[in-house]
From TrEMBL:
Assembly notes: Homodimer. Homotetramer. Homohexamer. The hexameric form exhibits both enzyme activities, whereas the dimeric form only catalyzes the phosphorylation of N-acyl-D-mannosamine.
Organism: Falcunculus frontatus (Eastern shriketit)
Gene: Gne
Protein's UniProt keywords contain ATP-binding: yes
Pfam families named among the record's database cross-references: Epimerase_2, ROK
A single BP term in Gene Ontology: UDP-N-acetylglucosamine metabolic process
Name recorded for this polypeptide: Bifunctional UDP-N-acetylglucosamine 2-epimerase/N-acetylmannosamine kinase
SUPFAM superfamilies assigned: Actin-like ATPase domain, UDP-Glycosyltransferase/glycogen phosphorylase
Lineage: Eukaryota, Metazoa, Chordata, Craniata, Vertebrata
Pathway listed: Amino-sugar metabolism; N-acetylneuraminate biosynthesis
Length: 737
C-alpha cells in the first residue's frame, strides 16, 4: 500500500513538472439542473478543498435558472460556490422543438463564456440535452472534456445523447463495470477510463444516520411516520410523450386509491413536462390532503426522504441508482430506465397501462426493506476522480484516439494502474469450522479465514460479522472490489428471504435465523444465503464440470450427504425449499437409523458419520486394525481408519464400504429415474472412494435409457466457498413485472 501511494505521488509530481510547476489545473464545472448538481457537487467540494492543485469555475445554465423549477441555482450559492456565469438557455415550449431550440441557444452563448474562462478541462455530467450543448462547444473549442456517468444504458433519447457525449469526451468516469465495458466496446481509450463509482454515493452511504424526522415532518407533515409514505418522481418520455402523460395520469390515480401520504416532485424540463403539471392540477394533487407537490427538494434532504420512505415510484434514474443504497423499495414505471443495472429493491412495471397494475405493484412493494446495494458506488468516487484529474498531462496531444477492435480484456485500472478485481465475500458454515473467503470472478480464493464454529447463535453471528468486516477491509489491500456476501450453510434455507428455516443437528441453535438483515446492515452489501448442497451445485455450474451443462446433479459426500439439482441451467429449490435433500433418499426400509429420524437413508449408510459409526463398532470388537495400521490410545476412530483398513485388506471394512457405495449408487439411480440429468458430479472427501461403486450400480440397476449418464468426481478444491461466491457473482437482480 505504501509503495503504491508513493508511486501515485511520484506520478503526480511528474505530471505537475510536465504541466509547469506553478500551473494549477483550471477546471470548469457546468451544471444544468438539480439532478446533475447532486452528482457534480461532491466533485466540486473536492476540487475546492485542494486549491494548491485546482482552480474551479462554475457555470450555471438550464432549469437551474427557471422559477417554475425552484430557482435551484440558489442551492449552489448556499453551498458557498462562486457562480462565474449564469446562462439562460431554456426556450419555453410544449414539444420536442423547444429542446432543439434550447440546445441551439446554449451553443450560441457558450463560446463567449469559454473564451473568457479558458479552462484546461470541462466536467460534463450525464445525458441531458443541455450537456450535449456543453460537450459540443468544448470539443469544437479544443477544451478537454471529462464525462461523468458515460457508458450506461437506459431508455428514450437520453441513451443517444449520452453516447454522443462519450464520443466528444477525452476522459471518462464511469460508475459500474458494465458501463466501463460499454465504453471499451465503443472504442474509447481504456487508459482514459476510470471506474470510480457514482460521486453521489460518497454522500449517500454516510447519510442515513443523520437526524431525519424533522426533514420528513417539514415536507410531509407532523403526523407522518417512517416507512409510511411514498416519494413519487416521474418525467416525460420524450420519444413517446402521449403515452408517458397517460402513464403519469394512471400513476396519480393509483396513488390516490392507495391512500398513503405522498411527496410528488415536479418533472424535469423536457418536452411534455407542462402537460404533466396540468395533469397534477387537474386531479387536484396540490390541494389533496394526502399529497405534497413540490418543485425541488435539496439533495441532502431528498436523501433522507427516500432513505426512510415506504416506497419510491416513478421513472427517475434516482430510483434505480441512488435509492438502492438504502434498500428502499422502488417501482420503476415504463421504459425510461430500460437497460439500467438495478438492485434487488427495484420492481419493474414495463407496461404500466392500467391503474390496477400500478396499484398492485404498490401493494407488493410498500413497506418492504431490501438489502443495501452498492452497484453504483462504494463511497470513494471523489478521491479517485481527483487523483485522475491530477494525472492529466496537458502536454499530451488533444486529438482523441479510438481503440478499434480487438478490445482489451476485462480490466479496470485506477489512477495508480492497480487492478481492482470484482469479487465476493464467501461464507461457509460447517459443523466444525466457520470460514470466510474473498473469491474473485474467476474462482480464485484470494484470501481465506478459518475459525471454529461457535456453539451458540449469538457467538456465531458475532464471529461471522467480525470475520466479514475483517475480510472486507483486507479486500481493499488486495485490490478486490466486493460485490456482495454469499453464505453456504447446512439445513433448510429460504434463499428469497435469507433465512435458515431448520438446521441439521451438526449446527446447534440455527433454526429460524435471519442471516441477510444483520450482515447487510453491517456491511452495506447485498447478502444471499443458500443450503450447502445447492451452493456446491452452483460452484460446479460456474467453475466446475457443470459449466455449460443444462441438466446435472451434484452429490456431496462428506460428514453428511447433500446435493443440488440444476435443471435447464437453473437451481431447483422446491415449493418449501426442501428439494435436493439427496442424502435422505430412502434405499432400505429397515436400514440403520439416520440423524433425520428416518431409517435407511443414503446418509445413514454412506456419510462420514455412518462410516465412523461402523468403524467404531469394528474397533470395539477388535476387528478394525490390521497389519500396517496403528492407533494411539487417545486417538478417535474415524471414517479414515475404515478406509485405510479396507485398503490394507480388512474384508469387513471392505464389505462396509461396498454396502455404502451400493446405497449411494441406488440413490443415484433413483435420481436418474426422477430428473434424468446428463451428468452426476460426486463431490467431497469420499467421492473418489465411491465413484466406481456408483457406476457399477447404475450399470446393474438403471434403465437402459439413463445408463449413458456421465459420473465424475469434482475437480473443485473448495466447492462450498466457491458456491457461496457464485450466489453473488451469478445473481441477477433485475425483475420484470
Amino acid at each position: 500500500e505504501v509503495y503504491f501511494k508513493n508511486l501515485s505521488k511520484q506520478k503526480q509530481k511528474e505530471v505537475m513538472e510536465k504541466n509547469g510547476n506553478n500551473h494549477k489545473l483550471r477546471v470548469c464545472v457546468a451544471t444544468c439542473n438539480r439532478a446533475d448538481y447532486s452528482k457534480l457537487a461532491p466533485i466540486m467540494f473536492g476540487i475546492k478543498a485542494e486549491p494548491q492543485f485546482f482552480e474551479l469555475d462554475v457555470v450555471v445554465l438550464g432549469s437551474h435558472l427557471i422559477d417554475d423549477y425552484g430557482n435551484t441555482y440558489r442551492m449552489i450559492e448556499q453551498d458557498d460556490f462562486d457562480i462565474h456565469t449564469r446562462l439562460h438557455t431554456i426556450v419555453r415550449g410544449e414539444d420536442e422543438a423547444a429542446m432543439v431550440e434550447s440546445v441551439g441557444l446554449a451553443l450560441v452563448k457558450l463560446p463567449d463564456v469559454l473564451n473568457r474562462l479558458k479552462p484546461d478541462i470541462m466536467i460534463v455530467h450525464g445525458d441531458r440535452f443541455d450537456a450535449l450543448a456543453l460537450a459540443t462547444s468544448a470539443a469544437l473549442m479544443n477544451i478537454r472534456i471529462l464525462h461523468i456517468e458515460g457508458g450506461e444504458v437506459s431508455g428514450t433519447i437520453d441513451d443517444s445523447i449520452r453516447h454522443a457525449i462519450t464520443k466528444l469526451a477525452h476522459y471518462h468516469v464511469c460508475c459500474t463495470r458494465s458501463a466501463e465495458q460499454h465504453l471499451i466496446a465503443m472504442c474509447e481509450d481504456h487508459d482514459r477510463i476510470l471506474l470510480a463509482g457514482c460521486p453521489s454515493y460518497d454522500k449517500l452511504l454516510s447519510a442515513k444516520n443523520k437526524d431525519y424526522m424533522s426533514i420528513i415532518r417539514m415536507w410531509l407533515g407532523d403526523d407522518v411516520k417512517t416507512r409510511d409514505y411514498i416519494v413519487a418522481l416521474q418525467h416525460p418520455v420524450t420519444t413517446d410523450i402521449k403515452h408517458s402523460i397517460k402513464m403519469f395520469e394512471l400513476t396519480l390515480d393509483a396513488l390516490i386509491s392507495f391512500n398513503k401520504r405522498t411527496l410528488v416532485l415536479f418533472p424535469n424540463v423536457d418536452a411534455g413536462d407542462k402537460e404533466m403539471v396540468r395533469v397534477m392540477r387537474k386531479k387536484g394533487i396540490e390541494h389533496h390532503p394526502n399529497f405534497r407537490a413540490v418543485k425541488h427538494v435539496p439533495f441532502d434532504q431528498f436523501i433522507q426522504l427516500v432513505a426512510h420512505a415506504g416506497c419510491m415510484i416513478g421513472n427517475s434514474s434516482c430510483g434505480v441508482r441512488e435509492v438502492g443504497a438504502f434498500g428502499t423499495p422502488v417501482i420503476n414505471l415504463g421504459t425510461r430506465q430500460t437497460g439500467r443495472e438495478t438492485g434487488e429493491n427495484v420492481l419493474h412495471v414495463r407496461d404500466a397501462d392500467t391503474q390496477d397494475k400500478i396499484l398492485h405493484a404498490l401493494q407488493l412493494q410498500f413497506g418492504k426493506q431490501y438489502p443495501c446495494s452498492k452497484i453504483y458506488g462504494d463511497g470513494n468516487a471523489v478521491p479517485r476522480i481527483l487523483k485522475f484529474l491530477k494525472s492529466i498531462d496537458l502536454k499530451e496531444p488533444l486529438q482523441k484516439k479510438f481503440c478499434f477492435p480487438p478490445v482489451k480484456d476485462n480490466i479496470s485500472q485506477d489512477i495508480d494502474h492497480i487492478l481492482e478485481t470484482q469479487s465476493a465475500l464467501a461464507v461457509d458454515l460447517g459443523g466444525t469450522n466457520l470460514r470466510v473467503a474473498i473469491v474473485s470472478m474467476k474462482g480464485e480464493i484470494v484470501k481465506k479465514y478459518t475459525q471454529l464454529n461457535p456453539k451458540t447463535y449469538e457467538d456465531r453471528l458475532e464471529l461471522i460479522l467480525k470475520m466479514c468486516v475483517e475480510a472486507a477491509s483486507e479486500a481493499v489491500n488486495v485490490n478486490c472490489r466486493i460485490l456482495g456476501v454469499g453464505i453456504s450453510t447446512g439445513g433448510r434455507v429460504n434463499p428469497r428471504e435469507g433465512i435458515v428455516l431448520h438446521s441439521t443437528k451438526l449446527i446447534q441453535e440455527w433454526s429460524s435465523v435471519d442471516l441477510r438483515t444483520p450482515i447487510s446492515d453491517a456491511l452495506h452489501l447485498p447478502v444471499w444465503v443458500d443450503n450447502d448442497g445447492n451452493c456446491a451445485a452452483l460452484a460446479e455450474r460456474k467453475f466446475g464440470h457443470g459449466k455449460g451443462i443444462e441438466n446435472f446433479v451434484t452429490l456431496i459426500t462428506g460428514t453428511g450427504i447433500g446435493g443440488g439439482i440444476v435443471h435447464q441451467h437453473e437451481l431447483i429449490h422446491g415449493s418449501s425449499f426442501c428439494a435436493a435433500e439427496l442424502g435422505h433418499i430412502v434405499v432400505s426400509l429397515d436400514g440403520p437409523e439416520c440423524l433425520c429420524g428416518s431409517q435407511g437413508c443414503i446418509e445413514a449408510y454412506a456419510s462420514g458419520i455412518a462410516l465412523q459409526r461402523e468403524a467404531k463398532k469394528l474397533h470395539d470388537d477388535d476387528l478394525l486394525l490390521v497389519e500396517g495400521m496403528s492407533m494411539k490410545e487417545e486417538e478417535i476412530v474415524s471414517a479414515a481408519h475404515l478406509i485405510q483398513a479396507a485398503k490394507l485388506g480388512n474384508t469387513k471394512a471392505e464389505s462396509i464400504l461396498r454396502t455404502a457405495g451400493t446405497a449411494l449408487g441406488l440413490g443415484v439411480v433413483n435420481i436418474l429415474h426422477t430428473v434424468n440429468p446428463s451428468l452426476v458430479i460426486l463431490s467431497g472427501v469420499l467421492a473418489n472412494h465411491y465413484v466406481n461403486a456408483v457406476k457399477d450400480v447404475i450399470n446393474r440397476q438403471a434403465l437402459s435409457s439413463v445408463k449413458t449418464v456421465d459420473v465424475v468426481v469434482s475437480n473443485l478444491a473448495d466447492p462450498a466457498l466457491l458456491g457461496a461466491a457464485s450466489l453473488v457473482l451469478d445473481y441477477t437482480t433485475r425483475r420484470i413485472y
